[in-house]
Design brief:
39% of the residues lie in helices and 18% in strands. With 434 residues, the chain is of the alpha/beta class. The strands form six sheets. Strands 2-1-3-4-5 form a five-stranded parallel β-sheet. Helix 1 links the parallel strand 1 and strand 2.
């Protein structure tokens, strides 16, 4: 009690988890808190119950938290207006009085603290890939200390934004190098690092061996520049520079920074067949919300960003994946592991009467589940396991199945067959056809 406690969400086989959670924190002999079921509610309960002080994770997680906060305040226009006004004032106050401003922010946003992390968290690091400016701004603005630790996986953490100046924390920079690392920018504008603790031998998957000396520099291939404070800002990856069919050189990260999409689970920019393509992932687009997605995409001026193709998929990230890799995703697409549907084809399915019949059944099943399990309907995906993902007891499971049987006048197969929404709908349709 009263000691530093780190929540270990990242597994130790993840390089950021190994460096930040294990090697770094265990050097100081601090307490590590592990969580068996990292659902959103269980996560919040664990942090508050055990008074966790530190949390290091990938940007996807922090983006998800911010998305949840915004979706809640947007339900009420008055509440949203108050939130934006309070956030603006908090950012101003923290600029001139960092400590007082942060304490005041925790009072202004106490309801958000109560419904999320609580008051114990002192320090958050977003690392592994680039953090959204909106995420940095909102979490720092409401009183947390969230810093950007983005950098090459092989480097681990060699720099952090440790300034009390909130303007530096809400800018996507990685600060200055720690004492054992020396940063330089190459003629190709990539970040190169020399260190007294650098490895002396690199063996690559191509069976190449590179020996390093004390004067060697490691090229991270992170495109980098410096700001007026001497902090390093990573603008993208050298291998993310693509040449499109029109001859334009495009930095995918810089284009992605200009795009925000809230109605899908994930999205990524890819170079598909020399065309700048936007791939959207959603496991939960249905007849009631597909128009919201269509409207948001239509309102984005994607052509001005050079985007010429839009695709949908429901499997951009595999279960357990916590970082999107363009190289891996492109490889999975080529192997057929990720199936893409063209934007227009995807939305045309919602206009088909036969499909709409099934989608209405999907909505009915989700409504029944949400009512029995007392959860938000938006937390239920087509492939959510009723027991393991949604937390239903055996009694609740059988009650749900019985309610569905009565509604549709069918007898569902409950012996490990109807374990998610998709399975239930297929079973209902097949029995109706008979």
């Amino acid at each position: 009690k009263g000691k530093l406690k780190l929540l270990c969400l990242l597994p130790f086989y993840h390089i950021f988890g190994l460096i930040a959670n294990y090697f770094w924190f265990c050097t100081f002999g601090r307490t590590l808190v592990f969580i068996k079921n990292p659902s959103k509610d269980n996560l919040f309960i664990t942090i508050q119950k055990h008074k966790v002080t530190h949390l290091f994770f990938v940007p996807l997680f922090f983006n998800f938290i911010v998305k949840g906060i915004l979706s809640e305040v947007k339900k009420d226009p008055i509440k949203l207006k108050k939130f934006n006004k309070a956030l603006k004032f908090s950012l101003f106050l923290q600029t001139i009085l960092p400590n007082i401003g942060r304490r005041f922010a925790r009072i202004m946003f106490k309801d958000i603290y109560k419904s999320t992390f609580g008051n114990s968290l002192r320090f958050l690091i977003s690392g592994g890939s680039d953090a959204k400016k909106e995420t940095l701004e909102i979490l720092n603005g409401i009183g947390f200390i969230l810093v950007n630790g983005y950098g090459s996986s092989e480097v681990g953490i060699t720099s952090l934004v440790l300034s009390k100046n909130i303007k530096q924390r809400i800018t996507p920079n990685i600060g200055k190098p720690l004492l054992n690392a020396m940063y330089s920018i190459s003629p190709d504008n990539t970040l190169i690092i020399n260190s007294s603790s650098m490895c002396y031998l690199i063996k690559s998957s191509e069976h190449k061996t590179t020996k390093l000396t004390s004067s060697s520099y490691y090229d991270t291939l992170d495109l980098t520049k410096k700001d007026k404070y001497g902090n390093y800002i990573i603008t993208g990856r050298a291998d993310d520079l693509v040449i499109l069919e029109n001859g334009n050189n495009i930095n995918l990260n810089q284009v992605a920074a200009n795009i925000t999409i809230n109605t899908v689970d994930n999205y990524i920019l890819l170079n598909i067949n020399s065309k700048l393509s936007l791939v959207l992932e959603s496991k939960n687009i249905n007849i009631s919300n597909y128009k919201n997605v269509f409207e948001e995409i239509s309102n984005l001026n994607l052509q001005s960003e050079g985007i010429s193709s839009i695709y949908f998929t429901n499997s951009l990230l595999e279960n357990g994946t916590i970082k999107m890799s363009r190289k891996k995703i492109l490889n999975d697409i080529s192997l057929g592991n990720i199936k893409l549907v063209k934007y227009t084809d995807f939305f045309n399915t919602f206009e088909n009467d036969e499909n709409n019949k099934n989608l209405i059944i999907v909505e009915d099943i989700k409504t029944i589940l949400a009512g029995f399990l007392d959860i938000d309907i938006n937390e239920i995906n087509l492939n959510s396991n009723i027991i393991y993902d949604l937390g239903a007891s055996s009694l609740e499971y059988y009650s749900v199945i019985q309610t569905i049987n009565n509604k549709y006048m069918v007898q569902l197969n409950i012996d490990k067959i109807c374990m998610n929404v998709s399975d239930i709908v297929k079973d209902i349709v097949s029995k109706k056809e008979i």
